[in-house]
Structures are given as C-alpha cells and as structure tokens.
Amino acid sequence: MLPDRAFNEFVLKFANVNGSGSASANLLCAKALFRMGLPVSPKNIFPSNIQGLPTWYEIRVSEAGHLARRAGIDIMVAMNPQTYAADTAEVVPGGSIIYDSTWPRNFGRDDINQIGIPIAALCAEEWSDPRQRQLFKNVVYLGALSWLIEIDIEIIERLLAEQFRAKPKLVEPNLKALQIGRDYVHDKVKIRLPVRARKSNGTADKIMISGNEAAGLGAVYAGATVASWYPITPSTSLAEAFERYASKLRRDPDGKMKAAVIQAEDELSAAGMAIGANWNGARAFTATSGPGISLMSEFIGLAYFAEIPLVLFDIQRGGPSTGMPTRTQQSDILACAYASHGDTRHVLVIPGDPGECFSLTADAFDLADRLQTPVFVMSDLDIGMNDWVVDSLQWDDTRRMDRGKVLDAAGLEAATSFGRYRDVDGDGIPWRTIPGTHPDKGAYFTRGTSHTDTGGYTEDGTIHAAMLERIASKFETAKALVPKPVVRTLSSKSRLGIINFGSTDPAIREAMGLMAREGYGLNHMRLRAFPFSDEVMDFIDRHDFLFVVEQNRDAQMRHLLIAEAEVPAKKLVSITNCDGMPLTAAFVMERVLAVLRENRRIAEASAPPITAA
C-alpha cells in the first residue's frame, strides 16, 4: 500500500508539439483531476508561433492546496523527440517518463521509471486518416495515464461527452482511443507509479476558470456595454469572453444583443472608441498588453486630462518591445502608473487570481466613473490565460453601479451654474453630464488642450497649473476608494515582512509556510491597488525591513513605493524574477533566506511565527 504522501501531491507535465491538438487532451486531464476533488494548478507553456515549436502543459496536484508552480516533475508525458533531453532532465529521481515507444529510445537515466507505449503504432492500426492518427495519439496517452495514476475513467468519459455535446459522433472514437491506452498499459505495463490520484473533497464550492474569462464575465456584471479591442496575446481571450457572455446575458426581449464588441484597426483606435463610448454615457473598456499600452498612450492622456472614465485591462507579458508574447511578467507597473506624456498619475487595480479578476473588475468600473479618469486592471498572462482553482464567483444582486457625479436633467435645471471642470466640494472631482441630458443646459467643450473650469480654451499658465493641481487632488481622494491590501500576520512581534502583488501570491504563501516551519515569522501584505491606501502605509510603518517580490527586472513596484509612498529605499529589499515563468515557492524561499544569511540586521528583525502557516 502506498503511503499517504504518494497520493494527490505530484507534478505532471506534458511535452508536445504546438499545433498537434494536444491542448484539449491535457486540459481534459486537469479537469478530471479537479472533478475528483483535487486542487490543481495547470500552466500552459506555449510558443508564440502558430505551430511546430515545443509546447508544455504542467499540472500541479496538491491536496494541501498549494497552487504555485513547482520545479521537479514526477510524471513526464514526453511526446516531442526534439525536447527529450531537457524533458528527461526535469524528472525527479524515482519519477516516471511516459513516451511513444513506436521508435526505440534511450533516455540515459536508470533512476526513473521509463514506460514505453507504442502510441503511433496503436493509432495506425485503428485509423487510416493521418489527422485522426495525430489527434487520437493525445487521447491514447490520456487513457494510459488514467490507468497508471488511477484517474477516474467515468469522469473522463463524462467530460468527453460534454466536450462533444454539439458533435456527438466524435464521442465514440475518443472513447475508443481512451480505451486503447488503458488496455495497453493494463496488459503490457507491470509498473505502478509511485504517485497517484485518489478522490478527495478539496474542490468543494470551487471552480476552474482563467482570469480573462472571469474578467470578461465581470465586465458584463459591472454594466459594460462596449468593448473595443485589437487582438494581442495574452488579452484577446478577455474580449472574446465578454462577447460570449454578453451574447447570453445582454439581450433584450426581442433577442437583440445589448452590447457592442468592436475589433478596431489598431490599439490607438481601440482606446479612442472606448473613450468616446464612455464620454457618451456607456460603460466601455479596452483590453491589451504592454505594447498596446505604449500605442494607446496619447489617448490615455486625453482621457486623463479631459476627465473621461476609461477601464483598461493590461494582461502583462514579457517585454520590452515584442519581448516574450507568451510568457508572464509584471513589467508594466510604471508604464501604466504614469502612462502618457506630461504630468499623469493613474489608478491601478491589481487582482491576485481569477476570482478577483471578476470582483475587482466591477470595482474598476465604479472607480473610473467616480474619479472620471482611466483605471488600469493589472492582470498578467499567468492569471489571464491559465486556469486557476478559485472559490465560486459571487455577486451581490443588490449592488448598483456607482456612476459618480453625473447631473441629470433635474440637477441641471436646479443648478445656478455649471462648470464641467469645477471642483465644488473639495474632493477634486467635478460634476459631469451625459450628452442629450438637457435641451439647453449642461453643454461644454471636451478638450485635450488647457482649459478653464467651464471647458473654455486657455493658455493662461496660472489656470493651467490650477487645473493640474485639482486633477492631482483626485488621486488623494482615490486612496480611500481603491481596494485595500490583503494582510497576513504570522508574528505580531516580527519587524520583517514581505510585499507582493498579482499572480505571485500562491508562491509567496507557500514559501511563507515553509519559512515559518524553520522559525522565520515574516508578515505579509499583498497589494491590490495604486495609489497606496492608509492600510498599506500602516503595514510598512510596522516593519523595519520588507522584501518586495515582483516579476520584472527593475523592481518597478519597489520604485513606486519609494517615489509615491516615500518609503526609505534601505527599508525595501528587492526580489525580482523576469524569466517569464510563473514563480515558485522554492525561488522565493531561496532568495529570502540568502538575504537573511548575509545580513544580520535584517535577520534580527524576524520573530518566531505564531503558527507555521
């Protein structure tokens, strides 16, 4: 009998060729494990070309709930001869490699289980069509794997039926391919793998969803009716998700869709369309990535200075320039915080998982309307394109959109005077009107040039400076409105902490638990917004030293904390990673402990944890 630690704690990796049709089979495996009640963390590692290059799909299974990527592969399904050497090297001693033995292979390792299955030959015996042979190879290895690690076959069969609900004729051949793989290992393979899956209850009230899917749904619930976008990896699926959900949920009684999804000719046009729709009273957004933010900068500056609400989803990827389009990074922090030329400062909302991509999207639209300014939702490729296990999405049906200071016809009628850019109550936010609200009152010019408080053109430097100062004061107002940070205190006596944001959170949480068991009580704050609220400053003030973990080269969030929160630079210890891969707990722990070993003053700021989290 296997020890408990051999069940439900392993990393499975598929090595394929891009364009081979493997993605659906690999996702099927992740979904089956999830439906067995196992928390899973799939990571799709794919090239930026259409087909032909290597692609990988990792699934970490952790009944303990660790969702960060983990180095060291327990089971490698190696289907790409070009990467055999590198793939084999990743397998941990005692691990296993499953490969197509139609052609003889020598992996040069005697410390791993080598399970050969003549997959190509088995498919050639069953199917004559070359494309069918290629596609069903993926289902054959899934069938073999299901036997070897004991994935519930009935769950896989149900998933296949769901997948091909619209094409029921495809169910039977897929089930046949599945059974071919199972029968072969049952009859020919005598090895039972040292790690396996068994049913659990770790996914009760959980769902599997990507951040882009959740954000697209969140935009529908937030009241968005216009999406203008230009295709760019990794944001495209967000606009597609919005269109898909809007087509189901935004229809009038006659069946007409009550939303517009517009593919613009470029990113600048996409931003302009969204700004125009917001100016006209809709809730509109655009979705892009770093290169798109660069191209949108001119219009972002217009929205900032003309004070027009705008929500921009930045699904960050590896940069600069074209960079690594299919790798994750957090390298647009400064670019978005100060997007466009001149004096600008923008609100950033930073979700930590797809669940927050849903909930914070609604907050972003409310903030944009209340503050009459662009608001950036700072996701990244890891959150945006990978499936995560999160709590079921929740929505308060009593929640109503906060449109901010919008004068209706009655308000305009009662007003003694109206100045579109006039602050009447000291929060920096003026009143606005929607075009067509009143037949005679509320008209004004919307200008990107310097203007008076009524929208008139001016080149008076004193007026221009006063306008800039008034707009800047909105940023102070925003500090009380933006999402608060998430704070975890492991030791009330510790003067040592760790700060992170976004998709690095699973790795941070796992690393903190590992370090707690070694006696290091680091407290933790996950940032969820810029500007930094009072709660952020309180956490910083309570600690002598703070590790700032981020996935970029130049420690951009650390720079923002120094510049905007005036945190002394010596107080912030930078830990950066920019290799494009999701962060691991081992990387975080290694870097933190290296600093503690080398710097006695920082190490002394730690205190034993209250509990080994």
UniProtKB/TrEMBL annotation:
One of its GO terms (biological process) is response to oxidative stress. GO terms for molecular function: oxidoreductase activity, acting on the aldehyde or oxo group of donors. Pfam families: POR, POR_N. Residues 218-381 form the Pyruvate flavodoxin/ferredoxin oxidoreductase pyrimidine binding domain. Keywords: Oxidoreductase. Residues 19-182 form the Pyruvate/ketoisovalerate oxidoreductase catalytic domain. Signal peptide: none annotated. This is 2-oxoacid:acceptor oxidoreductase subunit alpha.
